[in-house]
Amino acid sequence: MSQLPPPMASSAWAPTTVSTWSATPVPTTFPPLGEVVTVAHTKGGAGKTSLTFNLAYALSTCGAKVLVVDLDQQTGQSVFLGDAARPRIGEDQDVADVGAVLLGRAKFEDALIRDVHPNLDVLPADEVSMGIAGRQLADPWVRSRLVDILDSARADWDITLVDTPGHHSAVVTAALSGSSGAIVPMVPEAGPVNELPTILKTIRKTAEVSGRPDVYGIIKMRVWGNSSYRRLAEDEIRVVADRFEVPLFRNKIPEDAKFGEAHLVGLPVGAYLPSARSATAYRHVAYELIQRRGWRFPVPELL
Ligand SMILES: Nc1ncnc2c1ncn2[C@@H]1O[C@H](COP(=O)(O)OP(=O)(O)OP(=O)(O)O)[C@@H](O)[C@H]1O
Ligand SMILES: [Mg+2]
Q1: Within-domain flag for 282
Q2: CA distance 300 to 303
Q3: Nearest residue to 111 (alpha-carbon basis) of 148, 68, 74
Q4: By residue range, what is the domain housing residue 235?
Q5: Does a structural domain hold residue 1?
Q6: Does 26 map to a domain?
Q7: Which chain residues have CB less than 5 Å from ligand 2, an ion?
Q8: Is the distance from the beta carbon of residue 72 to the nearest atom of ligand 1 less than 6 Å?
Q9: Which of 4, 129, 223, 254 is the most buried (most CB within 10 A)?
Q10: Is the CB of 263 under 6 A from ligand 1?
């Protein structure tokens, strides 16, 4: 008579099924990924700050340790800091922010706001201080400090996302020259679409001089309705993406009233209401970015 193997103790085995997949960060012993990605568009109001902070949040929930560096003197970023926001400080007082670090007046550690959300830290910008630093970013010394800051962030964070102002070219090119990747938010409307070749040329020119960054993708933002006007704009984005041979993300962020509510209370929409349409879309954009780049964080297959 054949001998059956002895039954396994129930605690020694558990089936792995799709339902056991979880986005909860798993502690790892990997060294940090060390990616620096600048979010850039030459047009104001194109969605840079929204994309930076909300994508950072979505990536952090995938288990990545994420840093946001705010280089926008308008401190648009601060509105996503919620309770972690520091009070605004007057012109005559020193403030520990990214501008002060760039000018050599503050230490990186003093300016850093840790744990704004689990896995998510922020180097904020103060309007006055970053305003001064921004005007000096054409100076090679200040510029090299920014590149040093971004390079040293690689040792401690998996992904550093850099928010840039829409208008200040010295800030944008300095950030790009210190980044491995660039992401371009794209609202499918005439103004931002017409500016798309300009920012792609700026990124290309920086890459010719500095050897970086690569364009990691164009991400469509604030998409709503299905008018012929919107479809024309989306077609034009596809044409420009093909001409410059850069990836256009399949996942896009819808226009969403819940996003506006979250913005008002200073939260990424994923932290405010994880079931909101735009929160789900941001998670999907994060999964797509992770899959396109082959980063090691476990995400569900969506593509
Ligand atoms: N998915 C969305 N649904 C609704 N509103 C949105 C969405 N995404 C962004 N917005 C709104 O669009 C506006 C402009 O976005 P944002 O501030 O991110 O642009 P920006 O490019 O950073 O602007 P600036 O050039 O001034 O820095 C904000 O009021 C923001 O709340
Ligand atoms: Mg902004």
Answers
A1: yes
A2: 9
A3: 68
A4: 31-292
A5: no
A6: no
A7: 48-49, 72, 76
A8: yes
A9: 129
A10: yes
